[in-house]
Give the backbone structure.
Amino acid sequence: MTEEEKISRHAATDRDKCQEMADKYGWELLKVEPTNNKILKVDCVFEGETEFPNDHEESK
């Protein structure tokens, strides 16, 4: 497994949102990288595979 396969990325509007995602979902935030996107200004880089929970499945 390469180093790239051990991380996940999620775009966000700012670095604070990256920390909010990490806290909410229990993910380890490795770093925040700037993007060229005017709305989603940063990429949040997390350790391992991360996936947002499916709200529909949680309500069952």
User: Anything to note?
Assistant: The helical segments are 15-25, 55-58. The chain has one domain: 3-50.
